[in-house]
Amino acid sequence: MLLREYNIPVSGSHVVIVGRSNIVGKPLANLLVRREYNATVTLCHTGTKDIGFHTLQADILIAAAGKPALITPEMVREGATVIDVGINRVTDVSSKKGYRLCGDADPAVAEKAAYYTPVPGGVGPMTIAMLLNNVVEAAEVKI
Q1: Using omega within 30 degrees of 0 as the cis cutoff, is the peptide bond preceding 107 cis?
Q2: Quick one: three-class SS letters along 4-64?
Q3: What's the whole-model pTM score?
Q4: Residue 143's pLDDT is what?
Q5: What is the DSSP letter of 70?
Q6: Hey, what domains does the chain have and what are their CATH numbers?
Q7: Rounded CA gap, 23 and 20, in Å?
Q8: Which H or E run includes 137?
Q9: Residues 6+ apart with CB under 8 A from 94
Q10: Parallel, antiparallel or unpaired: strands 60-63 and 81-84
Q11: What is the spatial distance between Cα 115 and Cα 9, in angstroms, rounded to a whole number?
Q12: Are 82 and 75 contacting, i.e. CB atoms less than 8 angstroms apart?
């Protein structure tokens, strides 16, 4: 829905997903290769050798590995779309809570990316909105 809302073309795009979870990485890869989306998908993970080689080829880069700041600006192609699905709690003594939230992509990637979803404030609120949308759709189904 994020890609659709910002008119980011998926068809014919090379999408690199970093993360192989059963909740985000694998289902997203399966979704994006379907004919209706028609993307070429590369699925990487924290054990992939030279992740940067793959991420630099991405038109759309989706970070969902669960590792803070795994994706650095050097790993992002100029003008790419970066969607950071990761949410990590890292120690921050300057915070009241003693921690802060960050994503799998270093926020500095925003300087190279055409589009970038920050953490917090990007995919998280969209997830909640889509959950509520699905609840409304389910409630409207006539049995």
Answers
A1: no
A2: HHCCCCCCCCEEEEECCCCCCHHHHHHHHCCCCCCCEEEEECCCCCCHHHHHCCCCEEEEC
A3: 0.91
A4: 62
A5: -
A6: 2-140 (3.40.50.720)
A7: 8
A8: helix 123-140
A9: none
A10: parallel
A11: 12
A12: no
Rounded Cα distance, 112 and 73, in Å: 7
CA distances to 20, 21, 75, 129 from 125, rounded to whole Å, are: 22, 20, 26, 6
Asked whether 86 and 96 are in contact (CB, 8 A), the reply is: no
CB count in 10 Å sphere of residue 73: 16
> How far apart are alpha carbons 126 and 121 in whole angstroms?
9
The dihedral through the CA atoms of 64, 69, 73, 75 has a sign that is negative
- Residue 1: both structure tokens together: 């829905």
Per-10-residue mean pLDDT, the chain, length 143: 93 97 95 95 95 97 95 97 94 91 95 95 91 93 72
| Phi, psi torsion values for 26, nearest 5 degrees | -65, -45
Report whether 58 contacts 51 (CB < 8 A): no
In the block, tokens 């970038």 appear at 116
* 10-13 contacts, C-beta under 8 A, 24 or more apart: 10/37, 10/38, 10/39, 10/60, 11/37, 11/38, 11/39, 12/38, 12/39, 12/40, 13/39, 13/40, 13/59, 13/60
Residue written as token pair 């379907």: 34
